[in-house]
Amino acid sequence: MEPLYSCFDCFSYPVAAVDLSGSSVYFNKEFQRLYNAGNFRDIDFSSCQKRIFFCSDKGEMKCFSVNISAADNLNIWSFTDVTSYINKKSMLEVSFIDEDRITDENLKKVVEKNRRLADVVELMESGVFIEGTSGNVVQVNNSFLKMLSGFSSPDDGSDFRAETFHNMLAELCADDDYFLIKERIIGQYSGSTYTDELTFSDGRIFTRIFYPLHIDSQTRGYLWKFKNITQRRKLELYRFEMETMLTALEASENVGLYQEYKGIRFANNGLAHMLRTDRESLISKGIDHFIEKDETERFDENTVKLKRADGQTRIARMCADTMKVEGMTVRTFSLIDITEKIALSESLKINEEKFRNVFYNNTAPMLMFDPASFAIIDVNASALRFYGYTPEEMRAKTITDLKNKKGKDKGCRELVEEFISNNSGGVVQVKHMLADGLMRDVELLITPIGHNGDVSMLVIVEDVSERLKYQAELETVNNNLKQIVEQEIDKRRRNEELLMEKMRLAEIGEMIGSIAHQWRQPLNTLGILIQDIMDAKEFGELTDEYLRELVYKGMNQIDYMSRTIDDFRDFFKPTKQAEMFDIKTSVAQVLSIILPQLINHSIECIVYCCCGSCEKAELNTEFLPLCPGHDMKVTGYANEFKQVLLNLISNSKDALADRDIRIIKISLFAEEDHVKVQVEDTGGGIPESLMDRIFDPYFTTKSDKGGTGIGLYMSKAIIEANMKGSLSVENTEDGCRFSVNMQRRYD
């Protein structure tokens, strides 16, 4: 097919014949010349659009327009050089002068002026693009075409108007607002110069300068000037980075910098700090003064030993370089102190050696595995003995291969991920199968250990089979012991109930004695009244009036005896649930029972009441009136409290039997949130050796007098267990004092 198209070689412009798929069929000689020079290589022949192309030919920019015609299933691309056309076509644009002033002479002046302008513009380094207000291109220079080099753009018009080049510039720009800025510049700067920067998407940067062109004070065109400042910007950025780096090095305390050039020395603050000297001394002595010459102790060729001004030796990593400036050698040194790093490295080696000794020589089975694959990567001798495998067999397994497959413990992978994320270890209890098939209960202490970013899992294995066996046996014993304890508690509860009953019977015995004592006088009085009836009859004194008086006196005695029975009956009636009651009222009820016995034993009973701002004392009386504003209420079991109080008063009565001074003082205090009741006597007190035992069950100091040793024990149980209060005792100067404290309640 080549001879058929060889006629294209006679054309002075490039011609290419391609098939419909875009594959080349024939290039003429001019096309091949430009192609070999590096042009037209990026042409897409599969696109059949009309285009313009910019390329370099012998140092000058060329602009070609392409015409595509179809012939015999082929597309013939013919390229026409239109460089001079776009440079010269509008040089004689008549819009630059008024039509009525056009003469041959004026036209010659315009042509000459435009020719000189074209020569000047063509020689400019900056790319220049001049357009008229009519939208025509006045001139573009070679530098402007170079700026568009490598760019091809569709051209639907038959000529090159200014809009074509603006479209090219818009395509090249990195920003999308090229036309908006262009219209703003033309609109706002029609009378002045405008300058900004234009950045192309390929990284090139241009200074864009806009000049409006005026003739007879009217704008006739626009000059766009583009100066390539890409290298300058790069140099400015490089200079800025270098200045920033040098500034950082100058101020750095970690990197030392030293230079020598033409006998001039430079050292930064970091090097002076590293050598513990000042910069003036360092510069005057030079860096060689501080470098030790002993090569045997160098760690490698890049390290040196520095002798500091304070006599200490430091190890530094040094990077030395030389370069030629104006034929002179410049020595440059940068030093980094690595003393601590080397010490840390040595310490790490020692610790690694210690770890190896601990790991391999430990009597506890230990192994390590990879958290990603769970493959066992190392194992000590104790673990080999425990599992019964060889080192090769263990390293061929994963940690999950050792686990009982039927176990229901938490997944190993989830546990390991949890340990790694928390950077902490944990204990896992599983069943592991040994080489002989025996299953053992083991506890795995798993913890992550890492070095240089690598994490491994260290496992310490503890055989807990025997311990679990003993725990199971101990649990059985504990269950049995629990039953024994519950039986003992039931037994103790029954004993306490018996003690309570025994205490109640003892108190009933005392109460019967009290009843007998209180009834003795009324019975004597009734006997005298009955005898007086017989005497009155014999002496004729039994009148109706006299008989009514005897009946009245007798009924008073019988009523007194009846009330005594009611008091004792209410006293021993158990309180089934807690209730609010007044302390002073309970004290009066107790005194109504026991006061006759106290008086009979010549014992003075003083009741002292301190309720807020009111203080009052009563002597030998059961009638305790409540003062205004009185409030000594508590919540509990009133009858049980009265039994405690009766027991304390009875103990004091017995302690005063052989004393010359016989006084029992009952004190009532209403504090902020507590009510305190104190029973104090002059009975000589309790021996200090017995003070810690008086509340023990069956302990008594009155065994010769029938004491049971359960009164104080049950009293403390009632106050502290049932009423959530406290019962305590202390010796005073003449005797002892029992104190009952209970939570105060308000209406």
Layout of secondary structure:
Elements: H1 2-5, E1 15-19, E2 24-27, H2 29-36, E3 51-57, E4 60-71, E5 74-81, H3 83-88, H4 104-123, E6 127-132, E7 137-140, H5 142-147, E8 152-154, H6 162-172, H7 178-188, E9 194-199, E10 205-215, E11 218-228, H8 230-251, E12 255-261, E13 264-267, H9 269-274, H10 279-285, E14 303-307, E15 313-325, E16 328-337, H11 339-361, E17 366-369, E18 376-379, H12 381-387, H13 391-395, H14 412-422, E19 426-433, E20 439-451, E21 454-463, H15 465-538, H16 544-571, E22 579-582, H17 583-600, E23 604-611, E24 614-619, E25 633-636, H18 638-655, E26 663-670, E27 674-681, H19 711-722, E28 726-731, E29 736-743
Parallel strand pairs: 23-26
Antiparallel strand pairs: 1-2, 1-5, 3-4, 3-8, 4-5, 6-7, 6-11, 9-10, 10-11, 12-13, 12-16, 14-15, 15-16, 17-18, 17-21, 19-20, 20-21, 22-25, 23-24, 26-27, 27-29, 28-29
